[in-house]
Amino acid sequence: MPCPQITYQRPEDFAPLHLKLKGRENPDQAVETRVREILAYVHAQGDEALVDFTRRFDCPGFTASMLRVTPEEIAAARGQVIASDMDILREAADNIRSFHESQKQKSWWTTREDGTILGQMVRPVDSVGLYVPGGQGGETPLISSLLMNAIPAQVAGVERIAAVSPPRKDGSLNPYILAAASLLGITEIYRTGSAWAIAALAYGTGTIAPVDVLAGPGNIFVTTAKRLLVGQVGIDMIAGPSEIVILADQTAPPAWLAADLLSQAEHDPQAASILVTDSPEVAQATLKELAEQLERLPRSEIARKALADWGAVVVVPGLKEGIELVNLLAPEHLELAIADGWSVLGEIRHAGAIFLGCGCPEPVGDYFAGPNHVLPTMGNARFSSALSVETFTKKSSLIAAPPAYARRHGAKIARLARLEGLEAHARSVECRNV
């Protein structure tokens, strides 16, 4: 059996599954200690540290002159990508941009009868640093992550966007990364990876200027570096391993369900793939399909471990209990593979992204439809949202009060200040009442 089958009937039954999934957090103090050392080294030595790390882990012949990708290299890389692939990237980028344009917020203000003006100004941050994993040996780059992180920043109006990605052994970057960056008009690209790239973007080096916000996925070293730098810079989120929950009824094709579960399981040995169904027949058929499809999957070893350790097929008495469990799980991705997903949509309280209908698998959102695929994991959808245009903006409150306001309300303001023991605050208002 590729993954365990369990039953859920009431909220008390969630505890064992929750405890199991909590194990994916896997805090590793040794990693944090190492990352702190990396951050300190880059902070102190800048480019020298980047070259040192890159020689040791990525490209033995790396030099400081290779850090920044040249315009000529970007142009050459675009020429290496076939036209049909560029068309796909362009269409995906257009879809992503169109969706995120709807997220733009406007500055606003209101005027009161006494002449007071109150409002909020929405402004983009000045600069953003994007981390783009190179994948296995630089041959499976996360192109979609570049699109999903860069485009919301552009829609927000960020003027400077810098991208970093670890070089391949020969010092090059995968041409698809550079082609996608070129398509978006991003020209500031650096060959550097892991925690030292994050440190360079946060602190700055001789070659790389510091940024205000960091975004983009990465391994545990990248994620730990981002977490430790909160306060020095803004970050998108602390994301854990990928996860999918599918709520299915008897109408869902088991072969499709198995394929969708595997679409997450192949990501990472710690990815969680969970089917919740009120049909024991669908549960059994899906388990059979998982076993068969695993044999034909190129990344079967990764997927097999993920399913065995973190996967589950959960049989529930009915859809009511299934929805209850979904909300307790608060998954990153939720597929509603039921006859009428719209009828229960209002009951879904916690999910990073929701895919309605058997014909809408999760990869549609990962790559092409438009909504962002950077989503809260590990149950954080209870209080967190997808990466958006708002990630790259900040808001300033606006207060314009005429002199009469302080005269009219000064005594009340001063009283509140003195209750807090802040005499200077009180006098600051009272001096205007003379």
Task: Outline the secondary-structure elements.
Elements: E1 5-7, H1 14-22, H2 29-45, H3 47-57, H4 71-80, H5 83-101, E2 108-111, E3 117-124, E4 127-131, H6 143-156, E5 160-165, H7 175-184, E6 188-191, H8 194-203, E7 213-215, H9 220-228, E8 234-235, E9 243-248, H10 254-265, E10 272-277, H11 280-294, H12 300-310, E11 312-315, H13 319-329, E12 333-337, H14 342-345, E13 353-356, H15 362-367, E14 393-400, H16 403-419, H17 423-430
Parallel strand pairs: 1-11, 4-5, 4-7, 5-6, 7-8, 9-10, 9-12, 10-11, 12-13
Antiparallel strand pairs: 2-3, 3-14
**Beta-strand content:** 15-25%
| Mean pLDDT value | 95
Low-confidence parts: none
Overall shape = globular
CATH homologous superfamily (4th level) name of the largest domain: Nitrogenase molybdenum iron protein domain
CATH class of the largest domain: Alpha Beta
The CATH architecture of the largest domain:
3-Layer(aba) Sandwich
The total of helices stands at 17
Helix content: 40-55%
| Whole-number count of domains | 3
Biggest β-sheet: count, sense, barrel? 6 strands, parallel
CATH topology (level 3) name of the largest domain = Rossmann fold
